[in-house]
Amino acid sequence: ELTARTGVSNELFVPLYKTVGIALVVKIGSGLCKDAGAAALSSAVEIAGAVCALLAALPLLQKAMDVLLELMG
């Protein structure tokens, strides 16, 4: 419904949804690790989550680069 109202293609919203989902899971997992006293594991979960979010957002970043290159030349 959101994609229909905005007029933006679905291929741009899917990476955004995935990234937000990854962020939520990482936040909850990291908090659970901290509550359990495993600060090192919490940091590892946050780093792994950041890498996964970046990988999930690559199509969105590529599309942004395409738009920038189109505007420049």
Written description of the protein model:
The N and C termini lie far apart (34 Å). Helix 2 runs antiparallel to helix 3 and helix 2 (10-35) packs across helix 4. The protein has helices at 2-6, 10-35, 39-56, 58-72. The chain has one domain. It has 73 residues and is mainly alpha-helical. Helix content is 88%, strand content 0%. It has 4 helices and no strands. The longest helix has 26 residues, at 10-35.
Please describe the topology of this protein.
Blueprint: H1 2-6, H2 10-35, H3 39-56, H4 58-72
* Helix/strand/pairing category: mainly alpha
How many distinct beta strands? 0
Rg over CA atoms, rounded to whole Å, is: 16 Å
**Helices and strands, in N-to-C order?**
HHHH
Whole-number count of domains: 1
Q: Helical percent range?
A: over 70%
Query: Could you give a short account of the major beta sheet?
Result: none
How far apart the termini lie comes to 34 Å
Low-confidence stretches: none
Indicate the mean pLDDT.
91
**How big a fraction of the residues is strand?**
under 5%
Q: What is the count of DSSP helices, taking H or I runs of 4+ residues?
A: 4
Shape: elongated
